[in-house]
Amino acid sequence: MTTEACPLCSFKNAPFPTALDISPRLSQYLDSNAQIDPADSSFIHEDMSCLLEARVELEKRMVAIQNGLNEMMFRKERIDAAIYSRRAVLAPIRLLSDDILGAIFMWCTPSLASDLDETPDSLDVFRWPPWILSHVCRRWRKTALAHKRLWSTIALFLTSYSLTSGSSARLLETALLRAVPCGLDITVDHEAASEFQSHLLFHRHLSEIVKGVTPYIRILHVPTPQISLSLLKDSQLRSLECLQLDYGDRPTDWDEPHIDVPSCEMPRLHTLAYGFAMPSHLDLPWAQLKNISLSCFKVEMLELLADTGLEVLQLERLDYNASHLPQHNAVPCKPLTFPQLHTFWIEGYADELPYFFARVCGPNLKTLKIALYNEDEEPTTLPSVVHHAGRIERLDLALKGAIGLEQEDITNFFRPLSNVRECYIALPLSDLLLLAEDLSANEPILPRLRILRLSADSLRGYIDDLLQVIEVRKHLHNVGKLVAVEITLLVQDQASEWDGDVPSDDARVESVAMLRKMLDCDVRMNTDLDDNAPWSVLPPFASCEMGLDPTLYY
């Protein structure tokens, strides 16, 4: 019988020889110790020869099969690699168009180089996202180069190690060439050993390059104004929309902080954020500004901004030194009118609140955001909003370190705010319980409230009070129905000043279910906050630590 050999292992599917069959002549000797007959001796030798031949043949087949198996394993590895490559082709990111891929790149890239500690230098090709994305593959490079806005954020940290060679200047020229004509967001800061050294580094390596693109600068962020801003002197800032002058610390020469703002026209400037400065030190088009953030400022600034087109005002702590804080509790303050103001943010100490309320008068004010902290051991008070309280539609209030807050204080503060539709409140549990009483009174506070957001350090006994508030307000005439409630439970943390108990998952689910049943609307509960909560949940305190985000107003 003839058989065809396997093309891989040369194995022939032929029966094995019958060499293992035992002859009756041999079996008698295998089963006993009888003497072997000379005639049978030759027969046994022949049988052994057959067995040896069978073993040799079997070993040949084993080698052929092993070779075939090795070839199969090699082919299997190639097939696995081919499958992996096909799967890679079908990866979700490969299915995206170049426009969507570019949008993802934009979303993952810093849009504002404002954090010196976390933002890498734009001249660092190993850390700055646009450089990294442009070296992944040919398609990513093409997409990165096609999206000029990807390169429009430039962070220049004037360090000796990054500017001592001509490569830094070439990298800056390349980045700017890829960004223009998009509006530029430029941060200029220094980490050099001295002011003289930072000036020298900038003028030697980057001055002419930056001045060549100043007409395209849209956002200019200068963390050390008294040093870095003078480097852009005589520049043209025709496209500048947002100017941020942020001191990390109080200047030693506070009375005369030598800030030299570029002397040129800025027809598009509408947003300014700065601190530790006097109006006399800044030559700016104040009348055209729409959004202003003041940090550690002097009270004369408010007088400068009154009766202008200002729309958004953020006040972060008055300066107490050299008697800059008036005795507003003893002497009435003349109100200052801001006719276009619609958003007013306050962050500071509790005893500053009466002064802010007395001075700032916004007849068109719609949004009031307050974040106060009490560092003294004196009782906390909440004075009433003095001017046009009935026009405010959104209210955010976060109070840290409250001591001895009375029911009357809460009532007097919220009672004039009769037009508030959306409210966020972050208070300790004891104060929220007082608030619940006012919300469910016969003449409740916030009668037009529709959306309520709360942050508490505990829910012990509070859900029942909240359910009672909802039930009572359902049956009150001339009181709006709540359509959404969100509760943020502050997680207990040793570093946090808010100590609370985290309920079990079952308790949270049960509480949310009860609220949803009562409200017949969406109810959410969060428990993932820690450390400095609730400041992290009160927009805009969340993303920028009370820093003004100019992108909110474009």
Description of the molecule:
With 554 residues, this protein is α/β, with parallel strands linked by helices. Among the domains are: 146 residues, no CATH class; 134 residues, Rossmann fold, CATH 3.40.50. Helix content is 34%, strand content 17%. The protein has 17 helices and 16 strands. It has a 14-stranded parallel beta sheet with strand order 1-2-3-4-5-6-7-9-11-12-13-14-15-16. Strands 8-10 form a two-stranded parallel sheet. The longest helix has 52 residues. The chain is elongated. The N and C termini lie far apart (90 Å). The C terminus is likely disordered.
Class per helix and strand makeup = alpha/beta
Average of the residue pLDDT scores: 74
- The geometry reads as elongated
Number of contiguous helices:
17
Organism: Cylindrobasidium torrendii FP15055 ss-10
Protein name: F-box domain-containing protein
What attributes characterize this protein structure?
554 residues, alpha/beta, Rossmann fold, two-stranded parallel ribbon, 17 helices, 34% helix, elongated, F-box domain-containing protein
